[in-house]
Design goal:
This protein is mainly alpha-helical. The protein has 3 helices and no strands. The longest helix is centred in the N-terminal third of the chain and has 26 residues.
C-alpha cells in the first residue's frame, strides 16, 4: 500500500515581499511614462519633441530594474506567488512595449 504525502502549508505574516513592492514601484511609473509618451505623440500628431525619447529611455531603465527586483523576489519566502508573477509580467510588458515603440 502506497503512503500518501501530507500537504505542507506555509503561512506568512507579510502580504508581499519587499522586493515585489520595489518592483511595482519601478514598474507602474514606467508604464505611466509609456502611456504619457503615446498620448502626447498622438496629440502632437507625430512631431515629437526630444524629451520623449529621454522619457522612454528612463522608462526602459525603470522596467529593467523592476524586472530585476521581480525576479529577485522569488528567493524571498514572504508574500504570495501571484504578486511576484504580476510584478514580473508588468515589467516584461513594459520592456516589450518600449522595444516595439523603438522598432516602429
Amino acid at each position: 500500500m502506497a503512503l500518501r504525502r501530507k500537504k505542507v502549508y506555509k503561512f506568512s505574516d507579510e502580504i508581499m515581499a519587499g522586493d515585489t513592492i520595489i518592483s511595482f514601484l519601478f514598474g507602474v511609473p514606467s508604464l505611466l511614462c509609456i502611456l504619457f509618451c503615446l498620448i502626447f505623440s498622438i496629440v502632437v500628431k507625430g512631431e515629437n519633441p526630444e524629451f520623449l525619447g529621454y522619457l522612454l529611455l528612463a522608462a526602459f531603465v525603470m522596467a529593467v530594474t523592476a524586472l530585476f527586483f521581480g525576479l529577485l523576489s522569488y528567493k524571498n519566502q514572504d508574500g504570495g506567488v501571484l504578486t511576484k508573477r504580476a510584478s514580473v509580467l508588468l515589467s516584461l510588458v513594459d520592456i516589450g512595449v518600449i522595444v516595439l515603440l523603438y522598432m516602429f
